Amino acid sequence: MHAPDGFLNAGTAVATGAVSVGTIGVALRQTREVLKEKQIPLAGIAAAFIFAAQMFNFPVAAGTTGHLLGGALAAILLGPHMGSIVVTIVVVVQALVFADGGLSALGYNVLNMAIVPAYGGYALYRLFRRVVPKTGGGVVTATGLAALGSVVLSAMAFSIQWLFGATAPVSFAEVFTAMVGVHFLIGIGEGVISAMAVGAVLASRADLVYGASDLDRAQLADSRKVPIRTFAIVGLLAALFFGAVVSQFAVDNPDGLERVAIDTGFVESEEDHALGNSIFADYATEGLENESLSLAIAGISGTLITLAVGWGIFAAVRERKPKQPASV
Amino acid sequence: MNLALEVRDLEFSYPDGRQALGGVDLAIETGTRVAVLGPNGAGKTTLALHLNGILRGSGVVTVGGLELNDDNLNEIRRRVGIVFQDANDQLFMPTVGEDVAFGPANLGLRGAELEARVEAALGEVDATELAQRPPHHLSGGEKRSAAIATALAMEPQILVLDEPTSGLDPLGRRELVQTLQGLDLTLLVITHDLPFALELCQRSIIVDRGTVVAEGPTAEILANDALLQQHRLEMPFGFNGSALGDRSTGS
Amino acid sequence: MGTGHAHALYVHEHSPIHHLPPQVKIAGAVAFIFSVAITPREAMWAFAIYAVAIAALVRISKVGFGFLLTRLIGVLPFIAFAFLIPFIASGEQVDVLGISVSRDGLWASWNIIAKATIGASTSIVLAGTTEVPDLLAGMNRLRVPTLFTSIAGFMIRYLGLIVDEIGRMRTAMTSRGYDPRWLWQAKPIAASAGAMFIRSYERGERVHDAMVARGYQGEMPELRRRDPSVQEWLTAAALPALGITVMVIAMVAT
Ligand SMILES: Nc1ncnc2c1ncn2[C@@H]1O[C@H](COP(=O)(O)OP(=O)(O)O)[C@@H](O)[C@H]1O
Ligand SMILES: [Mg+2]
Fold it and tell me: Model pTM?
């Protein structure tokens, strides 16, 4: 997903750049004291870990392989601020040092690969934690679902940027369907691997899992009450089913969603389209009957992403309590 | 008697509750080379980390007459150089030269003064040619030399080395002995490598379960089979420990 | 079980571009890439000029055309996608070699391929002529927070070590006959990732100890600072100046 230069138009590149710089600026300020004390080398080596994790493949099916993106995993292990900083550094260094991803595309690459998955993934993690038991098994389950969700959020974020910055005659609806569909599949691998990795850390150094710092030893040790695998598989299937239904709905039955959109006031009425059109890329809103539908999906997704990221940041700010350093 | 280092009744537990040091007493004379022997998990590394205040337990640590406290940490850290077990932990900058400059730069040195310091420290370990090299492709011996130079650049009074022979081939080990013998410093050498201790250090102490359990001339300590066995230490096959009793050690 | 590329693109050479201070190179490259990104796709002549400029850059910097081409492989997936666009895109159809494709799609495809290739080539020359620590020091001079660049420095330093360690874990697993084909067989891989995280964390603590032992108080000393002369700024400005001029003419002309 390291988009090259010129993939989205320059305006979108600049706008996403501003959002990314602003968000990472906040994250750096929030973590400044902790980082100064002790965690600069730690954050750097954690970044190297995420970088390395992105380079190594795991099996997906019948010998095909995938690799980790790591945004949600980083946020759950290190905390959302530090997680997003670490993954941002990975993305920036990949572009600057390895020419992997365009320099002018850094704005949206950082947003989609670091900020949205880390903060959004962490918000989902907190959300899922509310419905799973307060145990080690619960942490693992929530990690898997959040990691899956983070990848889907990231695909949605890209689709929305396409709406504003499309450079090719492929409509938003098509991009959205393809991106979200594919990333539901990618997300399953992401979820399973992230969950098992967090489980492995919990088993030997639970104190290193930021997202589990609210649990005490007894709760952490209690992993048997959740049939993790069943839970994860059921969760994944549900997510997959949901994804398939939504995308089918979007493709085959645009009127239905549009109906919903209009009824809920998301889209005023078809006549108003001309107003908003100027800020959208022409390509992305092709076809009149598709247009309001596209805007509705984009609006709902955009709201979801903003809520998730905003909540992730909020949770991070509220939870911020420096971990006990083992040494001065 | 002029003491380079004195430790009295040092106790320390890690945050998880494990007691690593249970009342360590230690006195090292200026200019001597002392080996710290002991099995894995004895608390040797934990002790080393106390000598310049990276860890702070209860008890007293005095370096060259200065008792370690919150206000003189910087001075103590200048006086006590530590060479960590894994040289990769100590070489974190892009090049060896920058790694060696890191300490003195933290002391405020800049420009020509800093360069001279780096040059001198690398010279002491015969590694001037490594200055521009990135650390990750150095050999084990080169890494060890570079790591020692990073500590020497602080111009310490005492150098503490944590298992310096680990990961060295026989030749690297030989060169290390020579390098260390050439240093005009008080040395505290943590090691498992008993022949190495014998070659380098006049005196040895044995640490086990967080306390000092024996102390004396290295040859005498190593000649005491029962003592070694009791603390899971062993001379390599072929060495006759008990024949050491009358051999003079060090140089 | 590929390890990807853990090695930076730096090409050890002596060229005028190698010797420029990093901050002017980064600023120049980014400004140039943005002007390329803004250039209207219809102005094919503009992209021809950019391509010539890149060729000159490769020549002067001595990074080599072979090197450039092999490293451009990184953008291939997107170029492959770009090639598909004319077939999946809507709009007026034209015949190319007897196949009906979207005219607009062809333009879009050209647009992405041209800009991605020129952008990536510029990045490759930048990374090929600037050592990684200098790139970070340059970012620092361009007001990227020290916190950010210090973390990046540690990342680069320890990346190779971690990749090697993971490689060894993999070898150990493979040599015991572990050959996973399905996702649910990936548990050992995830477990080793977890173990790797713990080791990384513990290394981070030890490195911090080693820093503190040498007087570190939270601020990395700036050892690579190099302030560029006006002359050097002007030299590095040549590329973006060309880019911006061409881009503006192209905008006006189309
Ligand atoms: N960071 C730590 N947290 C908790 N326990 C530790 C830590 N480091 C060491 N220990 C424990 O303290 C004891 C002493 O360790 P250490 O000083 O490393 O021994 P040595 O260097 O002699 O092998 C051991 O039991 C070890 O498990
Ligand atoms: Mg030790």
Answer: 0.88
